[in-house]
Amino acid sequence: MKNLSFRHFLFLFLLNRFKGDRTIKSVFHLLNGKRSSQTIQDIKWYGLTEFFSMLPTWKLSVFEQETKWMENHLFIINSDNKAHMTKKGNIIVENYFNNYDWPPQVNGWKYGQTAAIFWKRLALLVQCLSFSLEENRSYVPVFDDRDIQQWLKQRWPRNKKDKKEMAFHLYNELFILLDKIPEKDAFLFTHRLSGHQHTGKTIQQLAGLMNQDPDESYFRFQATLHYLLANAHQTTYLKDTAAGLLQKHVLTDTAKKTNMYLQKGLTIQEIAAIRGLKRSTIEDHIVELASEGTDFIIDIYVSNHLQKDIMDTVQRIRTYRLKLIKEALESENVHADYFSIRVTLAYFGGIHENARTLSI
């Protein structure tokens, strides 16, 4: 490894956003899309939802080698199980991102899971329309996913006139939206599509063609999908392609199950016993619910007065490190366990963020 790549710059950028409060692996889990309670909390507390799962193919073994290289070359310091950038790291990241043309829409937390399905639907739709209008049935579908093909069958136009109309409007919808983003991103997206007498290129092929880092190409391609999903409501055919994919909030399956028991009035201890899980695991689920649940009632777990004390302390000491928050509260003779602090931070750092100011 001789030079820093896009993913290294992105890693350093995010590490800096953690302000020395988290471990090196916290950034890895964020970029890799690990849906753990801690990672979910981190992306909400530090305002990093857009970067969640944006580099899912970065293997841990490779990550550890590359971050060790960055540490040896004095870009980062890793001590006391916490990591932060050096002055050298700060300078190089600032220079790289100072005039960086960020994609107009990136939200891995909101669109990460749905973007892949949306892409498969759209790519197969475009390919099938292209070949069908040329009356050519001799081609291999870009995706052989049964669910995706079934989705297309349910919407497939009955005659050539309807196919032409669909193709015409879909083209216009894509043209209007792609015309508003950086040209390189539109190029990257359109050249991944396949059609009659045109085979879509891979990310690696396009990265080479554009003289762009493959990780950056992947990042920007995903961002374009996020952009299309965010603006699909303005259209007809893209909106239909995205139908059923978007959710207002995303919960892990295990948190959903815990929520089901909570709705029945069971206590944390009762749920832990029924599910055969530790109490701390159920508390993790509740923290996740506090962040994502629109109907979550925080007062059941943390008194309004303690909520205020916790949030005031966070604003005063300007950190999300639980131990430091707890110690600062105790110095003011305020008792709060870690669960209360986590629930409060999750609640006001999640979809309820407007309920009380939370900015560091």
Describe what you observe in this structure.
- The protein has helices at residues 6-17, 24-32, 37-45, 60-72, 87-97, 108-133, 146-155, 160-178, 183-190, 203-210, 214-231, 237-242, 253-263, 268-275, 279-292, 304-317, 322-331, 338-349, and strands at residues 76-79, 82-85.
- With 360 residues, the chain is an all-alpha fold.
- The chain is built from 18 helices and two strands.
- The chain is globular.
- The protein has three domains: 6-97, Arc Repressor Mutant, subunit A, CATH 1.10.10.10; 108-242, no CATH class; 253-355, Arc Repressor Mutant, subunit A (Orthogonal Bundle).
- A two-stranded antiparallel sheet has the order 1-2.
- Helix 9 packs across helix 11, helix 10 crosses helix 11 (214-231) and helix 13 (253-263) crosses helix 15.
Task: Summarize this entry quickly.
The protein contains 18 helices and two strands. The protein has 360 residues and is mainly alpha-helical.
Provide key terms for this protein:
360 residues, Arc Repressor Mutant, subunit A, 3 domains, disordered C terminus, YpbB-like, Helicase_HTH
Summarize the helices and strands and which ones pair or pack.
Layout: H1 6-17, H2 24-32, H3 37-45, H4 60-72, E1 76-79, E2 82-85, H5 87-97, H6 108-133, H7 146-155, H8 160-178, H9 183-190, H10 203-210, H11 214-231, H12 237-242, H13 253-263, H14 268-275, H15 279-292, H16 304-317, H17 322-331, H18 338-349
Antiparallel strand pairs: 1-2
Helix pairs in contact: 1-5, 3-15, 6-7, 6-8, 6-11, 9-11, 10-11, 13-15, 14-15, 15-18, 16-17, 16-18
